[in-house]
Amino acid sequence: MNETLISDYKNFLNNGKTERECVQQIIKFAEQQGYKDINAYETLAQGDKVYIQKMNKTIALFEIGSGNIEDGMNILGAHIDSPRLDVKQNPLYEKDFVVYLNTHYYGGIKKYQWVTLPLAIHGVVCKTDGSTVNIKIGEDESDPVFCISDILPHLAQDQMKDKASDFIPGENLDIVFGSEIPSKNDTAKDTKDSKETKEKDKAKKAILNLLKEKYGIEEDDFGSAELEVVPAGNARDCGLDRSLILAYGQDDRSCAFTSVQALLTGKAASRTNCCLCVDKEEIGSVGATGMGSHFFENATAEVISRMPGGYNELTLRRCLANSSMLSSDVNAAYDPMNSGLYDKDNASFLGGGIVFNKYTGSRGKTSASDANPEFIAKVRNIMKENNVPFQMAELGKVDQGGGGTIAYLAAKYGMNVLDAGVSVLSMHAPWEITSSEDICQAYNSYKAFITLTK
């Protein structure tokens, strides 16, 4: 067991609960290993190490190899976004002496899992004067936390008759942000004859005063904010034997962290090595920072433009088509308590090593890249040569559903791509479970992969 790696991994999770926080940490790690922003270079040569980031939410790292970049790169690609709740643009409201923040859930969640948990808020508020206020509330022991209330069981008869997908409506996932003690005037009935009327939104005004005092934020500033609501608390060892890790965001930061560390501790040979950490995978890899954007090919073009011969469209196309990639994304761990959902012979197990998944997608392999067997054989061979344990698996039974990764978006360039990641129990829950052994073996497998010569 690589105890240093596991400790560093848990620290990465604790300090990287948003895409921005992950990118900040990755840049810090990279610069400690000699990587520089690509804008620091006019030309690139063998051994140079550069990074390119976009909107502080996606990043690509490159170590230049000795060979012709047209012959392709070794690429590790992961995503750094995770399911969560996002604060809406006009979120703050008061309802009968309780102040709420209105949210919109992000990614595939079970809504009922998010109620009555201690929650934290991470993100940024961008003000019209050009300044940015960094927000992190709920992680320090002295911080307040936030929560979504639920109905007490004594009054939940109607709620308990609904389907699990319906009994917590999305519009009810609003977090408790503050409150006011009602006074006699506050609770008086608003009638024409009443001499006593309550002060409107007194609790909300008090919260706004606190926001102004502590952060310099006005209510209108929520319109240009990016605030993410996540579970409060640190990654913890799980199980009496401490063999497991319980933490938020392990899909897919378990693969992102180990991919980055593999690149930073490895050394490029003939092929240029690349690690790509992207945003928006949980909602379809859309937007300017998702894998569906042109970020990756633009970043590769920037690298090529600084190499001997300069930029050439054909060079870029050949480079991408001749590359090999592990789409570093997690797989569902076999759950003994729900064994009927799995084809046990084709399931992945906690502690079994990295999971290679020939195809993801749903049911009839919809949205899968379906890796070529020749490439899988090559990957299997290099794992065996480096004594790295691995398992071949699918997500679950064919008709139960499925999931996707960024693999199919990389495969469109014509490169070889195989899904390869850590097995996760309770995937997409606020707290997910992985095996410490699998984290170590993911790192070992990614480090072995980037030694491929063609």
Q: Structural class of the secondary structure composition?
A: alpha/beta
Q: pLDDT average, as an integer?
A: 94
Q: Provide the spatial order of strands within the biggest beta sheet.
A: 1-2-3-13-4-14-20-16-18
* Separation of the first and last Cα atoms: 31 Å
Contiguous runs where pLDDT drops below 50 for at least 5 residues: 191-197
Can you give a write-up of this model?
With 454 residues, the protein is an alpha/beta fold. Helix 5 crosses helix 10 (436-449) and helix 6 crosses helix 7 (313-321). Strands 1-2-3-13-4-14-20-16-18 form a nine-stranded mixed beta sheet, with helices on both faces. Strands 8-7-10-5-6-9 form a six-stranded antiparallel beta sheet. The protein has helices at 3-15, 19-32, 184-187, 202-215, 250-265, 295-305, 313-321, 373-385, 407-411, 436-449, and strands at residues 36-37, 49-54, 58-63, 73-79, 84-95, 98-106, 119-126, 132-137, 175-179, 225-231, 236-238, 244-247, 272-278, 324-327, 331-332, 354-357, 361-362, 390-392, 402-403, 416-421, 423-424, 432-435. The protein is built from ten helices and 22 strands.
Provide the fold topology.
Blueprint: H1 3-15, H2 19-32, E1 36-37, E2 49-54, E3 58-63, E4 73-79, E5 84-95, E6 98-106, E7 119-126, E8 132-137, E9 175-179, H3 184-187, H4 202-215, E10 225-231, E11 236-238, E12 244-247, H5 250-265, E13 272-278, H6 295-305, H7 313-321, E14 324-327, E15 331-332, E16 354-357, E17 361-362, H8 373-385, E18 390-392, E19 402-403, H9 407-411, E20 416-421, E21 423-424, E22 432-435, H10 436-449
